[in-house]
Amino acid sequence: MAEAQNIPVGSTTAGSIAVAAESTVATRMSAPPSFDVADFPVPHGREEEWRFTPLERLGGLHDGTAVATGTGIKVDIDAPEGVTVETVGRDDARLGKAGTPVDRVAAQAYSSFEQATVVTVPKETQLAEPIRIAVHGEGGTAFGHQVVELGAFAEAVVVIDHTGDAVLAANVDYVLGDGAKLTVVLVQDWDDKAVHIAQHNALVGRDASFKSVVVTFGGDVVRLHPRVSYAGTGGEAELFGLYFTDKGQHQEHRLLVDHNKPHCKSNAVYKGALQGDDAHAVWIGDVLIRAVAEGTDTYEMNRNLVLTDGARVDSVPNLEIETGEIAGAGHASATGRFDDEQLFYLMARGIPEAEARRLVVRGFFAELVQQIGLPDVEERLLAKIDAELEASVLEASA
Amino acid sequence: MATLEIRDLHVSVEADNATKEILKGVDLTVKQGETHAIMGPNGSGKSTLAYSLAGHPKYTITSGTVTLDGEDVLEMSVDERARAGVFLAMQYPVEIPGVSVSNFLRTSATAIRGEAPKLRTWVKEVKEAMERLNMDPAFAERNVNEGFSGGEKKRHEILQLELLKPKIAVLDETDSGLDVDALRIVSEGVNRVRESGEVGTLLITHYTRILRYIKPDHVHVFANGRIVESGGPELADKLENEGYEAYTTKGGVTA
């Protein structure tokens, strides 16, 4: 896309396409994946995977000083009939199947949680209503682990809402059986002080479809690792994300799609708007096409709209291709300021400046929301965006 | 009766770190019910006049005045000008991704009219206006100007003209890029608004073609940043036959 004009000072938009026999996505991490926190050195901030993150604001999640408090977090699960919800111990065999922690905080969460929640949708079950998981922070520190498992040909929508105030590190596994269809809507609507670091691993079965919609509005620091790998051929993953980064907030989304099986598809679209001093958004989009993954079709895009001075975006798409026998692979990243011509057009129709700005930002997000393909989710998101825009001033001129 | 008065208007733009004067003293009075055609070669400053009246930030007014019924237009922000009754139909309407035509039209009508139009009458009003312009109802659900053909963009501009009912309508090269059918439909739309007698029209064009459909009361030749000749409709006939050559050689056209 040729829209990277007007890149503001204080933003980086870098991308690379590497054709290599060895994966640098894997090797540039400072330690290999592990379930044990002891396998990761305490990060000092200059490591590739930590260089954008404000370590001093993580509530000690990265250096072992964070200790779980009794009333850290409240989890309510509202599941329709046919769904099994279990609370299990650390030794349950279903935990950790979809992926391994890739950094110290994820490993800390895995090493520290006491009980996990396993939500199971039996094979060939189609849910009429979504499974709702409400995670409410009660001011403490918590380590979590959740598993959502769909049997073969099951279809489900899971909505996970994060509200309140907490220091939370978590791992979430999504395991999709053959031909299963899972949509996850993950909303970070935290209060201002919350710290939320999580790794989400999706393991997509043969001919299964995984759709993820990540919505990050709140919190002081939110750092998410949405990761996808495939358990068989013919799998599809669609990763949508939108974030609205306000003054002082740090919102970081680090995607990885590991095309480790042939004939799978992936499409990632993340869009963010930023406003206010020290608003910082980070988007890392790693796509790895392994030598075995012939017939892969993948695309990833990140767009950022910088509404005021003082905000910073780091957007880094990486595509690594170990085989030439693919259907398609592409990436795009663009960070731009507010388009003054759009503003002029709307104002020339009598619409006051603040309202015109809201319309443009709403439109910027609506374009993404329209692609989700689930009317009630779309409606809910647009209402949420409207509320966020209503609360924002958006007066400051870019 | 609404009157737009432009007096000795000088406008410059910043380009390549230099200030360049585009308008060099424009004088023009447009009254409600009148239609003025402004004709001139490319680069003469016609579009600069249009955008300056609407308040585009790219253009700096260095001297002169513009008033609407005595009110200082140049002091107004872009949206205030629109609410005061100045409408600019743009040559290159801007795409607004994710904003539907219906949402845009209603937001705009609400701003211009000072209150939200009643939903039932509004839906009917828009539907009828779209029918008159041969626009498919599905058009309302598309995003503003996104993927529109040249003809669709211009019809959408005229749709807004019909719905917003300005006092002064500035039509910037509305005819450019239209085939004969689209030109006729768009011109009929402009004529419906003119027939109300409540709008003063400033029709900016390079070609005489549109004047077969929209009959001006006054024709002005624009060259080198100012009006160099004014007359009645017969002046358009003269331009049709002789072109702009007589004006460009003595005027010194800026490319």
From TrEMBL, chain B:
Keyword annotations of the record: ATP-binding, Nucleotide-binding
Domain ABC transporter: 4-249
Highest taxon listed in the record's lineage: Bacteria
InterPro entries: AAA+_ATPase, ABC_transporter-like_ATP-bd, FeS-cluster_ATPase_SufC, P-loop_NTPase
A Pfam family hit: ABC_tran
Xref: PANTHER family: ABC TRANSPORTER I FAMILY MEMBER 6, CHLOROPLASTIC (PTHR43204)
Stated family: Belongs to the ABC transporter superfamily. Ycf16 family.
Record-given protein name: Fe-S cluster assembly ATPase SufC
Organism expressing this protein natively: Streptomyces kurssanovii
Gene name of the record: sufC
